[in-house]
């Protein structure tokens, strides 16, 4: 019997208030430089808080102090450059994780196989209209059947599935959006070797996780 593919998804509120200085101290030098490059203080504060959340969760899972977790990047599958999936350099070889944050919410997915997670605030109608033509043709056809009041929420749920998958691949949005179908219908047409699960999050957000799995393999999502 094929073992189930297990992914743990942690949800955390971002603290962009008094703990930012403490959070900054547990980031590594590269993260600190990135935090200092943001133009707006609010963006820097969310980045610091989200990456501190990530480090605390990885430290908990790997039994390390947050500041001791060494992060790096795998090779990009498109160009071979050092900007593919994020990796833990001092963790188990098969260990994978993914971070996403939006507004005041952060999600971290961890698994012993490639994984991607994405959370977004519900997009507006203008954003939806601008991005829909970039999607897979079958996804565009599905959208035409969605009632107008539900369009923005439906689009956002599809978008987080697609971003979770592209993050799991390690390409991010460098891979063209029309190449892969991740819609809710025609599940057999999903990318071979990947399974998707929508994640329950507060009203006004959508979230999903994508995990590498064999065809027909059961996937168990543990919400933490």
TrEMBL record:
Pfam families per record: ACPS (PF01648)
Gene Ontology cellular-component terms listed: cytosol
Keyword Transcription regulation: no
Keyword annotations: Transferase
Tree of life domain: Bacteria
Record-linked InterPro entries: 4-PPantetheinyl_Trfase_dom, 4-PPantetheinyl_Trfase_dom_sf, P-Pant_transferase_sf
GO BP annotations listed: lysine biosynthetic process via aminoadipic acid
Domain 4'-phosphopantetheinyl transferase: 114-178
Record GO terms (molecular function): holo-[acyl-carrier-protein] synthase activity; magnesium ion binding
Family indicated by similarity: Belongs to the P-Pant transferase superfamily. Gsp/Sfp/HetI/AcpT family.
Record's protein name: 4'-phosphopantetheinyl transferase superfamily protein
Lineage: Bacteria, Bacillati, Actinomycetota, Actinomycetes, Micrococcales
